Each structure stands twice: as structure tokens, then as C-alpha cells.
């Protein structure tokens, strides 16, 4: 399992909501959310806010569908939420996602808005294959939000909630 030193106390991993199909000539990077995706993003953002899941920092891929999902989260949690867009989260490996989390020194909780399969692979790196299979037997759905807490006694990550629309 991945080691992040010192770890934040909480990590949120959010897969972007459902994306629209690419228009002719449109780059994958530029695909926005579908109508259903906008609804998914708002629902998961509102549920996260209702549960008081508020990261100190929200980091999002710069791809349009991630920006749209992060914007919904930002609206639900208030304008004081620190939101940053990170180019490296697009087409990245799980190692890059983990390095980005690890680089957030002094941050108590961080949320990543990213892409599959990387978001799922990052979760697997943090909690292990068996825990991933039990928690997400059909895979990481669009607009799925995983909440992980660091258990300092066990020196491991524990999945504490999974929020879907």
C-alpha cells in the first residue's frame, strides 16, 4: 500500500461525473459533462456538503468534465473552499496522483477530482486490492466520492464512506 508522509488525516477521491460524448473533432480533454453528469455532480456535491465533508483543498484535473464536477463541489461547499486545477491530473498514473497528495504538506484534508481508471487505481494503492474489491465490486462509478481516513495506530488508510448520487 502507498505511503504518504506525513499523511493528511483525510483524503477524498472523486471521479468526475458522466461526460458527454465527444463532438466531431472535439478533443477528449474538452468533453464537458452530459446533462445526466451535471445532475450527478450536483447531487454528490450536495450530499457531501450535507455530511460536512469539506476538504481543506480541492485539486482537480484541468479536463472540462473534471472542472465541471469540481465547480459543483465548490458551489455546494462555499466559495471559501480552496480550489486549484492541476494539469498533471489528466492522463496521469496512480503514482502521480499519490505524489500530488503527498506534496500537500500542512494540509489536513485533500480532495482529488480525477479520471478512471486512475482514481480507482489510486484507491487500490491506498487500501489494497481486497478492500477495493469489497467496497467497489463493480468498479468506481462516475460521480463516486470515496472518503478515506488515516488510522495512525495501524498506519493505514481506512475507507469510511462512499457517496454516490
From TrEMBL:
Signal peptide: none
Coiled-coil annotated spans: none
Highest taxon, organism lineage: Bacteria
CDD domains in UniProt: HP_PGM_like (cd07067)
Pfam families: His_Phos_1 (PF00300)
InterPro entries: His_Pase_superF_clade-1, His_PPase_superfam
Sites where the protein binds substrate: 65
Protein name: Putative phosphohistidine phosphatase protein
Source species of the chain: Rhizobium mesoamericanum STM3625
Amino acid at each position: 500500500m502507498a505511503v504518504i508522509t506525513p499523511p493528511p488525516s483525510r483524503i477524498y477521491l472523486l471521479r468526475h461525473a458522466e461526460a458527454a460524448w465527444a463532438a466531431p473533432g472535439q478533443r477528449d480533454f474538452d468533453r464537458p459533462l452530459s446533462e445526466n453528469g451535471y445532475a450527478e455532480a450536483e447531487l454528490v456535491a450536495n450530499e457531501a456538503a450535507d455530511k460536512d465533508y469539506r476538504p481543506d483543498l480541492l485539486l482537480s484535473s484541468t479536463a472540462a468534465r473534471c472542472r465541471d464536477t469540481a465547480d459543483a463541489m465548490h458551489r455546494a461547499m462555499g466559495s471559501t473552499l480552496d480550489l486549484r486545477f492541476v494539469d498533471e491530473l489528466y492522463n496521469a498514473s496512480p503514482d502521480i496522483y499519490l505524489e500530488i497528495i503527498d506534496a500537500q504538506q500542512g494540509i489536513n484534508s485533500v480532495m482529488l477530482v480525477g479520471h478512471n481508471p486512475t482514481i480507482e487505481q489510486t484507491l487500490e494503492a491506498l487500501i489494497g486490492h481486497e478492500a477495493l474489491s469489497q467496497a467497489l465490486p463493480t468498479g468506481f462509478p462516475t460521480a463516486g466520492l470515496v472518503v478515506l481516513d488515516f488510522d495512525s495506530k495501524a498506519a493505514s488508510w481506512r475507507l469510511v464512506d462512499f457517496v454516490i448520487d
